[in-house]
């Protein structure tokens, strides 16, 4: 029993779902304004148009099921689509590795062009993976020929932030590439001896 005369009664809190729905608005309007942005964010992080569409669709489906429960759906959607792209890339890489290891396919192509493209893409991804997520997303957008303004809109950042992340990413990549060149120049011990004995 509530003891209202002793000042212990409190007004019941507003229902959370109703408050949040009022703040974020109608799901259809949210979908129309956010879906194109999610496609840009996904492609800026290195996804193909098809992969971006899959990731954005996955995130929007989840948000539809949880509509009214997530307090900042636009920010959540941006983070979720980046995570979806990263998970899909990891799954694809693991699947290819298992398929090749199982002897079901080889990473070679008849004319070598597919293998070269695959190797080049893997080389770029390997180097982008050393970057922190914000810098990696910016560099992926640059690779996809997005402007600073397009990247800022896609990633929900300001243009100065995009430019600074781009500067830091380039500096980090220069260091990584210099290290790689240094490793390639070093001759493993014992290699010279083997050459002399032949």
Whole-number tally of structural domains = 2
Q: What is the radius of gyration?
A: 25 Å
Strand content: under 5%
Number of helices: 9
Mean pLDDT, to the nearest integer, reads: 74
Shape verdict: globular
Assign the structural class, choosing from mainly alpha, mainly beta, alpha/beta, alpha+beta, or little secondary structure. mainly alpha
The percent of residues in helical segments reads over 70%
Q: Please give the largest β-sheet.
A: none
Low-pLDDT runs of 5+ residues are: 1-5, 11-23, 192-198
Order of helices and strands: HHHHHHHHH
Assembly type of the chains comes to single chain
Cα end-to-end separation: 97 Å
SSE topology:
Elements: H1 16-24, H2 27-44, H3 49-65, H4 73-101, H5 113-128, H6 133-143, H7 148-155, H8 159-185, H9 191-197
Helix pairs in contact: 2-3, 2-4, 2-7, 3-4, 6-8, 7-8
Characterise this structure.
It is a single chain. With 198 residues, this protein is mainly α. It has two domains: 17-106; 107-187, Winged helix-like DNA-binding domain superfamily/Winged helix DNA-binding domain (Arc Repressor Mutant, subunit A), CATH 1.10.10.10. The protein has nine helices and no strands. It has helices spanning 16-24, 27-44, 49-65, 73-101, 113-128, 133-143, 148-155, 159-185, 191-197. Helix 6 (133-143) crosses helix 8. The longest helix has 29 residues, at 73-101. It is globular, with a radius of gyration of 25 Å. The N and C termini lie far apart (97 Å). This is RNA polymerase sigma factor 70 region 4 type 2 domain-containing protein. Keywords: DNA-binding, Sigma factor, Transcription, Transcription regulation. Residues 179-198 are annotated as: Disordered. InterPro entries: RNA_pol_sigma-70-like, RNA_pol_sigma-70_dom, RNA_pol_sigma70_r4_t2, RNA_pol_sigma_r2, RNA_pol_sigma_r3/r4-like, WH-like_DNA-bd_sf. One of its GO terms (molecular function) is sigma factor activity.
